[in-house]
Backbone:
């Protein structure tokens, strides 16, 4: 096998592992509990990146990384080292909190490693995305239908444990499918219905915006998707006993309220340097609507404080760990990409911006890795990343 083919196939294998295998493992774990939480998925990422890194070291003369990407990675690695190293005296809970905040670093670094030497041919990537998106969509639709039939009322798909994360995988897939398909065929319809079956309110809002910025479909079709999304938005709230228009019934609203109150306690740290990821954030009164966090996250350890990973939102966690300025820089970068590139990069940037309001995005093991791989793959065209030097066999 040529080195070029290996790189491409390994990239496809990683996509399938993150987009399809990981959700299937989560479903099996609901019934059999053969691994603890989602850290098993992090282990899969580490193993995949390590194997590729070994191949790169063995064939180091065949890979081209480039001076500027290498310099950027080195600078970023130094920042990470300074931020995460001083934890030797921390207790178990603090180390666990630190590792939770370290996941985006692991995901981005692993994505760069796995993408080294991958060619720009999209045909095989689209094949993987079709397999992942259609399989997950069928699974979620069936899950929702069976659960609704058993319960006697409308139920969302839930058997992956946290369906909102898998909804993000389908959103990223939609970005690619809309970029390729000129007609609204059965595959696109199936994926749209798969997203609807998750009843993720942030996902259906994001889906509507992605459709509206696309220039491939008629306004009537966009309006139909928007109407369906609004219906699912209301149905999702009612099915969980929530008021769809009462923002105070949404736990993410209270997380933002809590975070903003925390950030106000020390404006200098909040704006410029952030807080240590392995120590609790400044103490403030926790709203009654978030009282469940005490038992859910702390595992019976009592009140050990609020840590960044408890805030869920990607933007809140980045702000808590790195400061407001870091968050502004990331948002400004995404907006600049949307203005300069358009198309696929724009729709994927919208996914990051909107999903980041309520979810961890790059803090989510498998879904974050899936997004990072495809997002960085597209960005390579902007910064001139190249594949391996030649087609050497091994």
Residues:
């Amino acid at each position: 096998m040529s080195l070029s083919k290996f790189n491409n196939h390994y990239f496809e294998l990683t996509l399938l592992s993150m987009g399809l295998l990981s959700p299937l493992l989560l479903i099996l774990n609901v019934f059999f509990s053969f691994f603890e939480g989602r850290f098993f998925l992090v282990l899969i990422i580490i193993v995949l990146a390590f194997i590729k890194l070994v191949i790169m070291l063995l064939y180091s003369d065949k890979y081209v990384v480039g001076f500027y990407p290498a310099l950027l990675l080195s600078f970023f690695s130094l920042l990470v080292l300074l931020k995460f190293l001083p934890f030797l005296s921390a207790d178990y809970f603090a180390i666990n909190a630190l590792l939770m905040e370290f996941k985006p670093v692991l995901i981005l670094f692993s994505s760069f490693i796995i993408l080294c030497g991958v060619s720009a041919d999209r045909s095989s990537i689209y094949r993987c995305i079709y397999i992942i998106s259609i399989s997950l969509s069928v699974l979620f639709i069936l899950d929702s239908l069976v659960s609704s039939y058993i319960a006697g009322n409308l139920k969302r798909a839930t058997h992956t444990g946290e369906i909102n994360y898998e909804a993000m995988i389908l959103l990223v897939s939609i970005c690619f499918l809309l970029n390729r398909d000129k007609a609204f065929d059965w595959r696109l319809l199936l994926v749209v219905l798969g997203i609807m079956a998750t009843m993720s309110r942030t996902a259906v809002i994001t889906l509507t915006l992605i459709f509206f910025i696309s220039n491939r479909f008629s306004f009537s079709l966009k309006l139909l998707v928007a109407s369906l999304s609004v219906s699912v938005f209301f149905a999702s709230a009612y099915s969980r006993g929530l008021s769809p228009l009462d923002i105070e019934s949404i736990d993410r609203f209270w997380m933002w309220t809590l975070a903003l109150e925390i950030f106000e306690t020390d404006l200098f740290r909040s704006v410029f340097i952030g807080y240590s990821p392995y120590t609790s954030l400044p103490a403030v009164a926790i709203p009654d609507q978030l009282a469940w966090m005490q038992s859910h996250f702390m595992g019976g350890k009592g009140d050990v404080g609020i840590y960044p990973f408890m805030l869920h939102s990607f933007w809140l966690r980045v702000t808590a760990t790195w400061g407001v300025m870091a968050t502004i820089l990331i948002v400004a970068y995404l907006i600049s990409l949307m203005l300069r590139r358009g198309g696929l990069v724009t729709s994927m940037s919208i996914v990051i911006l909107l999903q980041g309001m309520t979810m961890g995005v790059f803090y989510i093991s498998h879904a974050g890795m899936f997004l990072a791989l495809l997002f960085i793959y597209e960005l390579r065209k902007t910064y001139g990343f190249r594949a391996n030097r030649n087609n050497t066999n091994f």
About this structure: The chain is about 70% helix and 0% strand.
